[in-house]
Amino acid sequence: MTELELLRGLRDDVAPARRSALDQGRAQLLNAMTAPAQAVPRTPAPRFRLRWRIATAAALALVATAIAAPAVIGGRGADNPDITRTDAVFVLTAAATAADAQQPVPERPDQYVYVASTGTVHGETFACEPAARTACTTVPDPDMRIERQIWGSVDGTRDGLLRTRADGAQGWDEFALESPGPRAYLDNLPTDPQAMLAHLRGTVSGKDRKYSAAGMQEFSRARDLLGENYLPPASLAALYQALATVPGITVTQDVTDAADRLGVAVGIDVPTARIELIFEPDSYTYLGSRVLNPDGTIDQETAQLRIAIVDRVGQQP
Q1: For the stretch 93-121, what's the b/e string if a residue is b when 16 or more beta carbons lie within 10 angstroms of its beta carbon?
Q2: 82 located within any domain
Q3: What is the pLDDT of residues 142-201, one digit of tens each?
Q4: Cβ atoms 138, 297 nearer than 8 A
Q5: How would you list the strands of the sheet with 112-121, edge to edge?
Q6: Within a domain: residue 209?
Q7: For residue range 49-97, what is the model confidence (pLDDT) as tens digits?
Q8: What long-range pairs does 27-33 form, CB within 8 A, spacing at least 24?
Q9: 63 and 116 share a domain?
Q10: Around Cβ 183, how many Cβ atoms within 10 Å?
């Protein structure tokens, strides 16, 4: 029996709630989930956690309705325009709770963050007329699967290494990551959701400038941070909580990441693209990300396979 079936069976002697009552309750639930949190002094500083309480049968039915509502990419729910956002907030809140339950991985300045990943890249070549080099057209190359292994210096003071291998290739291509460089162990990020949101809005990499519409910058920067770095649990939870406040986010069920693992995606649409973060549907741990074209085809995708702290370049956990 699933949790929703258990909820529906609780107090089955009570008559079903009227549609008007369900609509009113759903609206109250949505307002409560999306309203700014009230500051409450507490020691130590609070972290948001999911809590369930036994309630009346009508209230439980409303919660079940909100969680089980159908989701549409960039679309609207049939009865309420905020249903898809509610599902997205639920997923990100669950991901934040899962992150907050982790223990920080200890590190030393002389160590490395190791990340193994796989993804698909879409290249292009230029076809030009021999007599007129200015008359060129862009020809897409076939999609290429790339495996990556990276060793990033914990504090950015030591040389790292990047290995890449195209699908079917025998050996690895290696690229030195010279120091000083960016730190890969990001224990300097905010742990407060509002401060994290400000951080996401204030920084975005040059390659993602085309995704600078409202909300896309936050997701683009989050994708960069999650890709090949280690975020301590408090910062990781704050990251997901910050993204949950971004207007326009929606959820996509039953997606597969670049490693063909089943997941649930939370993302945001703009006219030029949709960017999504993909989570494991039971544990809500991060799996990877993808960028979709306006027609729904995949432009970029990556799946994080392993992340660990190691002692030296080339070492694998």
Answers
A1: bbbbbbbbeeeeeebeeebbbbbbbbbbe
A2: no
A3: 678 999 999 999 999 999 999 999 988 889 999 999 999 999 999 999 999 999 999 999
A4: no
A5: 173-177, 160-166, 144-153, 112-121, 298-310, 286-292, 273-279, 262-270, 250-256
A6: yes
A7: 322 222 333 332 333 333 333 222 222 233 344 456 679 999 999 999 9
A8: 27/80, 29/62, 29/63, 29/66, 29/86, 30/66, 30/80, 30/82, 30/86, 33/86, 33/89
A9: no
A10: 18
Q: Are residues 189 and 297 in the same domain?
A: yes
- Decide if 135 contacts 157 (C-beta within 8 A): no
Q: Where are the alpha helices (DSSP H) in 159-256?
A: 193-202, 216-227, 233-243
For 297, the token pair is 């085809």
Q: Is 213:195 a contact under the CB 8 Å cutoff? A: no
User: Do 18 and 164 belong together in one domain?
Assistant: no
Q: Which residue has the tokens 């997205």?
A: 88
**Domain range enclosing 268:** 112-310
Read off the tokens for 267.
Answer: 């993302």
What is the length of the chain? Answer: 317
For β-strands 298-310 and 273-279, DSSP reports them as unpaired
pTM of the model: 0.69
Give the pair of three-digit tokens for residue 215.
Answer: 């909300």
